[in-house]
Every structure is written in C-alpha cells, then in structure tokens.
Amino acid sequence: MAGELVVVYNLLPEIAAKVEEMADKAIRKAAFEVVAASMAAAPVGPTGFLKNSHYVELSGSDGGTNEHSYSAVQSPQADQTLLPEVDKPTEKHTAIVAVGASYATFVEYGTVHMPARPFLTPAVELVAPQLLRAYELIFSFMEANAL
Amino acid sequence: MAVDALQNGYQMLFSTLHADSTFMGLVTGVYRYVAPPGTTGRWCILQHQSSTDTNGGTGVRLLTRCLFQVRITGEAEDSVNIIAAYERADALLQPNGVPLRNTDNTLSCFRAQGLDYGEVRQDGILMMHHGGLWRIEA
Asked: Into how many domains does chain A fold?
C-alpha cells in the first residue's frame, strides 16, 4: 500500500541505551580526571591529608569500581577534620568531585594571611573542554542515528 | 602594552576598580594575593585562579581564558559593607550583567561563579570572604 511504513527493526531503544551509556562513561571519566589533576596539584604537607581526601560521588551504582570513594579517603589525624560525605547526586549522568579536608576551601581560595593555592579549579578548567568534546561526539552520534 | 594575558587581566581589574571613587571609598585597598600585615577594615583581593590557552593549528596562541578571584574580605560583623563593596565591584566589572569588553587589552570580563566563605581568625574574630571568580579573556 502506498505511503505505508513498515518497521522491520526498531533499534531506537538500543541506540538510546548506548547514548545513555556513553554519556555516563564521559562524565565518570571526566570526574576521575579532575580528581587526578587536582590531587597532583594539591599542596602536600607532612600528612598528605588534603591530597588524599579527594573523592568522587557518582549517580547510580558505581558497581564497586570507584577507587576514589569516600570510604577510601585518608583518615584524619588528631588536629585534622574530615568533613561529612556529600550527598550522592540524584540526577543521571552527574558526578561530584569533593575534598574532605576541612581546610580545603582556605587553600583553594586563600585566607586573611595566606594567598590562595588553587588546585581544584585548575583541574576543572583543564578537564571541562575534554568533557564538552566528548558530549559533542555523543550528539554527533545521536544525529547520525536520527535520535 | 603587556603581552602576558595574566598581567593584562590583573591590570584591567586593578585599573577598573581603582578608577571608581565609590568603590575605593568602600575598601581600604585593592591587593594582589594577600593584604599587607596590619590592614584593617575591609579590603579587596585579586588573585589569579586558573587559565587555559587556545592555540591555533600552528601553535600560535589565539586566546587565553583566565579565572581571577575578586574577593572582599573583612570582619563578618561588617557584612553589610562587605556585600555593598562587592556589589559595586560587580557593577563595575559586569555593568548591568553585560560583560565588560575591550578594556585594558582584554577582550571580555564576566563572572563565572560566586564565592562566599567564613574564616575564624587566630584571635577568634570571624572574617568574611565574599566575591566571585571572574572569567577574563585576553
């Protein structure tokens, strides 16, 4: 019959799932790259607490693959304070990079007597363009598959 | 003219803020990194936070995107004036919410995010830091 559209294969659910998977991988990769860059740039004192208190919270299940979980953070010494764990993100494709050392803000942004020694902001600035590029590729994939 | 984008950024921030008598009446000074010992009242801190370059295919530097911290610091009990000082700085650096363009060898200036935190000084006085991270493209 003229004008009739017959769907033989419906691949849209598979492609949509693939897009979800790619987006999730991209955000996880970016989060762990931010952690790596930030840990590399963080000033290291005698205990290394600032550096070793970085952690990542991922949306959904991490499948036990998160090497930078809150439970893996270095234990604070007597004069140090570890801030409570941030809430797990509830939105899909979201990751939070956090630093548990209570004095991280003062190192990152400075105090009355001490200039800032930024470590997290430069890491985000470094990785953000890579994440945007990854999302551009995902959007290209979606266009190519008419999603 | 400095060719260093970071220096151009500092220069733009310093000159824009210093040129405004209202802002300078609200702070005791504008300082890079940290205020000199003994500084009192409320003051403005400028600090480079991060920068990334965009290069052409042949490695020619086309653009530098810097982030600068512009922060007013003072005793927390003076929060009304600290906020007023930062609002003035905000109005100077991004008038009516529109990026400041083509000033002191920079292309544009706009705020990327806000910043606000407290600090208990050694003498027990609560200090307030209020400002933002400013994107400067040069």
From this structure: 1
Mean pLDDT, consecutive 10-residue stretches, chain A (147 aa), reads: 76 81 90 96 94 92 80 89 92 92 96 96 94 89 74
Residue A7 lies in a domain: no
3-state secondary structure of B52: strand
**A6 is a domain residue:** no
Strands (E), A5-136: 54-58, 95-99
Task: Look up the CATH number of the domain holding residue B72.
Answer: 3.30.2000.30
| Per-residue model confidence as pLDDT tens digits over B88-127 | 999 999 999 999 999 888 999 999 999 999 999 989 999 9
Domain that holds residue A103: 16-144
Ramachandran angles phi, psi of B101, nearest 5°:
-115, 150
Structural domains counted in chain B: 1
User: What is the spatial distance between Cα B131 and Cα B89, in angstroms, rounded to a whole number?
Assistant: 9
How many CB contacts within 8 angstroms connect chain A with chain B? 46
Residue A8 included in any domain: no
Q: How far is B3 from chain A (nearest CA, A)?
A: 22
- Which residues in A65-86 are b (16+ Cβ under 10 Å) and which e? ebebebeebbebeeebeebeee
How high is the ipTM of this complex? 0.91
Listed by number, the residues of chain B in 96-135 with a beta carbon closer than 8 Å to a beta carbon of chain A are: 115, 117, 119, 121, 127, 129, 133
- B93: domain range? 5-137
For residue A131, being part of any structural domain is answered with yes
